[in-house]
Amino acid sequence: MSLIKIKLHKNKILFIIFLASVAFFCWQNYAHAANLGDIIINEIAWMGTNISANDEWIELYNTTTGNISLDGWILSATDGGAPQINLHGVISGNNYFLLERTDDETVSGVAADFIYTGALGNDGEVLELQDNQGSLINKIEAGSGWPAGDNTSKQTMERVASGNWQNSASAGGTPKAANSEGAQTPPLPPPADNSPVSPPESPEPTIATPSAGQINVNYRWGDIVINEFVPDPADEEVEFIELYNKQSSNINLDGWFIYDGSGAKTSLSGILEKYFVVEKPKGNLNNAGDLIILKQGDTVIDQVAYGNWKDGSTDDNAPTASDPKAIARTGDGHNTYNNNKNDFAVTATVTKGGANIISDVDASLGRRDVDVSPSGESDIIINEILPQPRGDEVAGEFIELFNRGDKEVDLTGWILGDSSTRRYAIKKTDAVNSGVARNDTIIKPQNYFVVYRRDSKIALNNGGDEVKLYPPDSETPAQTVKYEKSVEGRSYNVKNATSTPLTWEWSEVVTPGAPNIIQIKHAPVVDFGWSGEPVVGQIIFFDSSDTEDADGDDLTYLWNFGTGATATEPNPIYIYFQAGNFQASLTVSDVEHTIKEEKIIKIKAALNASPVTVSTNATTAVKGVKVTSASAAKNSVSTGAKTNTAFTQTTLENIRELAKGSYAKVEGTVAVKPGVFSTQYFYIVGSPGIQVYSNKKLFPALEVGDKISVAGELSESYGELRLKTKAAADIKKIATSTLPAPQDFTAEEIGEETEAQLVRVSGEVVDKKGSSVWLDDGNGEAEVYFKQGAKINRENINEGDKISVIGIVSQSNDKYRILPRSQQDIIMESGSAQTGEVLGAVSASDSWELAQNNKKLKLIQYLLVLSGGLIVVLVGVIWKRKK
User: Fold this and answer.
1) Which of 434, 539, 630, 830 could join 450 via S-S bond, C-beta 3.0 to 4.6 A?
2) End-to-end CA distance of the chain
3) Which domain holds residue 875?
4) Tens of pLDDT along 561-587?
């Protein structure tokens, strides 16, 4: 019998150990917690690719051997920029996880593990990777500039074993693969079909000891460029090749050489400051086409193929020129690398040893010489930006360019863009420039050129954006201007166009097509009031909601109740303990301005006031006040609108005919409940509708579709009419009605006539910025603004999608926007989501799968705890028996 028991005990022990092992194994594979450095940001293409500057990507690497779930992880730019990426998925051990921007076409031939939106700034970002508990796993401190990567050559930023960064060996980097060994010196070009390059077997060595101001170092591809050359000179002139120094220091050219396509070598010597002209180079530059190579010793620094020279393809060759024209870079040093067609143009103005000037035809034909200057050192700058004008944003938004040079510039083909993919090429067909007609795209010296949103279709983000200026045929911006949150009616201005670097400042004076005027911002306008019985021992509600700040700054508040007691909340409460006149004051600050407002409050002696138990400290505000009963609390505040006030019974159609400050009573149907758009207001509709407001948030229980009666005072906030109530009793439920139906309108009709109505607008998403998208239905654009309380997922809404939006039309000063109430108000017509899908809704299958996953997790947790407990008990029994 005892033998059978022992065997049974052994079987139980083995079974328990088996259960524990299985549970532990499942748990380890299901939830491998990450530590600092387990996942690293391994490679970044912040500059995009050769195909598009918008084709950005980020690669993560798992340094451990175990799989790690990224569900709930966040990769974000913590310096206030984009992107903010909510990750999900699994990254396997010692493997890569590729994030591609916008779509899976970013990296050709490599599948993305995750698609994100939001652009990386070319001037650097601070990136943080956090797990689902908010713990920091990896961080890149690059707020002052990326430590590696090349925006011109499109070499990516790669992490090396030491944790430092390097340029990738080649353009495009190594997505989802081991990082390269770093950038190397570019190889010699492949031999041409008709006349191969024959560099010498024993090149002349670098010689000479540099004198003062000279530099004798090893240079890289593109540091010095072939800037201008003439293969077919005019009579009495000679062939020449001009070099341009893109470095800030002088260069010793001893040991440098120029080769042509035949292999003829010209030895160089001397000091290159900015320009260096080589006349009569060895060999002959063929008129029909040739190859020019610049070398330092054996290292190729630059090369240009022009005309019909066959170097694999003539499609990207520079053009050739006939007597007496030159072939010149479209701006000094302008270099898109490996595409001479983009970099060079034929010019009738030869500028040997000077800044390039591109002119289309001979001056003898009456055309002015015009400088297109597309390089980063261009005289054309972005000078003023207005992201949020007062009134119509489409008509009012603009980007102003300024010519700070001494030559006229033809802007044809120059491109403006923002942080999205939208681009606008300047063309002669634009009809209006700052209200003045123009018949071409010439910008004179010290003059302005204004591009409005109505022409460019570039919608600047009010919450912060980038404005980029591209030279013709270039994907590299000559200038990028980044701004933070804008304020209505304020433009972003260059303070001094001649300074280096340029500095920017906001101004309340907007000057399109005229010199910038920088003006300081407004001080806040302070006003306050109070409600409640001004009687000893009763609660007084102080209210600062009438205080305004035109700049939209964050304000701080300091109250003094005239007794020595203070408070810092916008709307505090206080109890006075003795009768008399007290000087209450409110001081408001926006950092630059501090404004104080004072008023006398007369406190009467208590007669038959309800008893109130208070703290014995009379020098503090009401912290510690205790109301003795519910009835006493009810008696301490107003229970409804003033009984001695005459209310005008009216309708929603006629309520706007009453003057501000009037007391009105109206009926309507609840279209959105309190707490969705704001905790202090909601909307009723009929024809049209109105906002119902309560500073103290005193609302009865309401549901959408309830028919109610509202009594209150007519007031205005940000230009929008509202009915201000005093207490919950001012709002009375009449009946439960049917849900209000939206009315169909065009985008052009969204305005004053549709204010506070429940509307429906359908159109194409033409822009997406921050908390807004813009719909274009062919008649105009309408802004759709997503309030945080509506809890709408905007990630599935993309430019090009066709959607229908239902929402309330709300006024914010001089602009109107549609506020959807919930996810069900956004319906996809066509685009990235399925047609007819309510964006952000969870399907039944998705819900079932989530539920099953949760059940599995619960089961694993249960097994683990159970087996652990059994093991503890078993160990205890064994130990006891041994004793």
Assistant:
1) 434
2) 23
3) 1-30+843-883
4) 999 999 999 989 999 999 999 999 999
